[in-house]
Amino acid sequence: MGATKTDFFTGKQNSIATLAKALGHPARIAIMEYLIKVDTCICGDIVNELPLAQPTISQHLKELKNAGLIKGSIEGNSICYCVDEKAIAKLQSYFANMSIKLEKKNNCC
Amino acid sequence: MGATKTDFFTGKQNSIATLAKALGHPARIAIMEYLIKVDTCICGDIVNELPLAQPTISQHLKELKNAGLIKGSIEGNSICYCVDEKAIAKLQSYFANMSIKLEKKNNCC
DNA sequence: AATCTTTATCGTAATATTGCAATATTAAAT
DNA sequence: ATTTAATATTGCAATATTACGATAAAGATT
């Protein structure tokens, strides 16, 4: 045990959970925010921005990339990372839809 | 090691990460969706809805509650669980804001 | 070519998560 | 009072995550 039973859930449920899981760490939230903050998406100084060791940040970036939240391409010596808008749009519409559904309910708690 | 370094991040970053982390599992996404789907928020049949054992679901509900995503109150024999709209609103506005910021950028990846 | 810079990977220790059987709890029903 | 029903807690095994030192890889600089 200990492994998530993804087979039992829908593709959409797994997809949203994957995105949410990747954002479920303050360092990865901070990375996302930093990538958005800097003007250009060529960014080689994330390590200096965060209080974590370089391998740790590299690992977090890998997770964000695997989840589809960021894109990365080789840019000479360094790597160009930037946010994948489609993933954010997906989350945004998911929660917007949830909010709409919730508004229609009468609170009972 | 192995423990998240929450001290180094802002309250907001940790707060969003906590919400995202709680939603980072398909079973918990499914629970949220089910809570929204049913008309009344008195719900005692989540166990029958999901392919997981009762203790497992109880644990997932606890995590959602700890994260502030759902509210629960004792309703006689059973428990009345329902989604906390404020948490969803928080996520919705967070990602809406991210989307807006991303629109203003010129893609370079 | 040797060195520097930047990012990735490996290995490993500490901790957290996932899942469930067994059991406990608590209130309703009999 | 006993049984039933619903939910929570405990204990535990399997697996995943977090973090970082050491090291590797690869292009840039000298």
| Major sheet summary line of chain A | 2 strands, antiparallel
Question: How does the helix and strand content of chain A classify structurally?
Answer: mainly alpha
> Can you count the beta strands of chain A?
2
Q: In percent, how much strand structure appears in the residues of chain A?
A: 5-15%
**What letter string, H or E per element, gives the SSE order of chain A?**
HHHHEEH
Helix content of chain A: 55-70%
Strand order of the largest sheet of chain A: 1-2
Query: Helical stretch count of chain A?
Result: 5
How does this structure look, described?
Two copies of one chain form a homodimer. Chain A is mainly alpha-helical. Helix content of chain A is about 55%, strand content about 10%. Chain A contains five helices and two strands; from the N terminus they run H-H-H-H-E-E-H. Chain A has helices spanning about 10-20, 25-35, 45-50, 55-65, 85-105; strands at about 70-75, 80-85. Chain A starts with 10 loop residues before the first helix and ends in a 6-residue tail after the last helix. Chains A and B meet through helix 1, helix 2, strand 1, strand 2 and helix 5 of A and helix 1, helix 2, strand 1, strand 2 and helix 5 of B. The structure holds a DNA duplex (30 and 30 nucleotides).
Which helices and strands, and how do they pair?
Two copies of one chain form a homodimer.
Chain A: H1 11-22, H2 26-37, H3 46-49, H4 54-66, E1 70-75, E2 78-83, H5 85-103
Antiparallel strand pairs in A: 1-2
The first copy, chain A, binds a DNA duplex (30 and 30 nucleotides) through residues 1-5, 25, 27, 44, 47, 52-63, 74, 76-79.
